[in-house]
Design a protein that fits this description.
Largest sheet: 2 strands, antiparallel
Helix content: 55-70%
Number of strands: 2
Distance between the termini: 43 Å
Shape: rod-shaped
Structural class: mainly alpha
Radius of gyration: 35 Å
Order of helices and strands: HHEEH
Oligomer: single chain
Strand order of the largest sheet: 1-2
Strand content: 5-15%
Number of helices: 3
């Protein structure tokens, strides 16, 4: 760092910029905290709904045992294949996050004579489970992206608060002291030179 007026101005300008930018970062950090809290609450709600839906399948559980009687190629799992998870994206607190839209399944035809009557209900229940899985997966991805942004924002806030702003203030102080000393020395030298001139005269 140069101990000059130009450098002092540069440091003052930098300090102003840091102090102007810091409140924006702090606000973003607060917004992210709120949004992450809401996203985690939504994830908890979805997981609880899934647990309730699973416990509601008790009537099917005993019957699913009959699935083992099918040849492997006739397993009801083979009747359910996810074709596509449709997602859109939205901007939340400056972060592009996924939003679950829909879950599409392959249209698999099966012979009603080859399967017992409960298969239709079982497939509907499995579709619901798959939808919960897709919703939960999307929500976890959203939280992950928000938490990454939160980490980056927190690091920037800390950098500005604990490093950049104190550093700039200290640099300004050091340059100020140096320039003041230089000015005092110049005045002293001027007075000495003047005395010498007077003596010589």
């Amino acid at each position: 760092m140069k101990l000059t007026k130009n450098e002092q101005k540069k440091q003052k300008d930098a300090l102003k910029q840091f102090q102007r930018y810091l409140p924006t970062l702090q606000l973003k950090k607060q917004q992210l905290l709120i949004v992450i809290r809401e996203a985690v609450a939504e994830l908890d709600r979805l997981e609880e709904e899934k647990r309730k839906a699973i416990s509601g399948l008790d009537s099917f559980i005993a019957v699913y045992g009959g699935n083992a009687l099918f040849a492997p190629e006739k397993s009801i799992i083979n009747l359910l294949k996810v074709k596509e998870i449709k997602r859109s994206y939205q901007n939340v607190a400056g972060v592009k996050v996924p939003v679950f839209e829909s879950l599409e399944f392959e249209d698999i035809k099966y012979d009603l004579w080859e399967y017992p009557f409960w298969v239709d209900g079982a497939l509907m229940a499995l579709r619901d489970m798959a939808k919960y899985d897709a919703l939960i997966l999307t929500q976890k991805e959203k939280i992950r992206l928000l938490e990454n942004e939160m980490k980056t924002t927190s690091q920037r806030v800390n950098l500005f608060e604990k490093v950049k702003i104190p550093e700039a203030k200290e640099n300004i102080r050091v340059i100020g002291i140096y320039l003041q000393d230089q000015q005092t020395s110049a005045v002293v030298r001027g007075k000495i030179a003047k005395k010498k001139l007077v003596k010589a005269g």
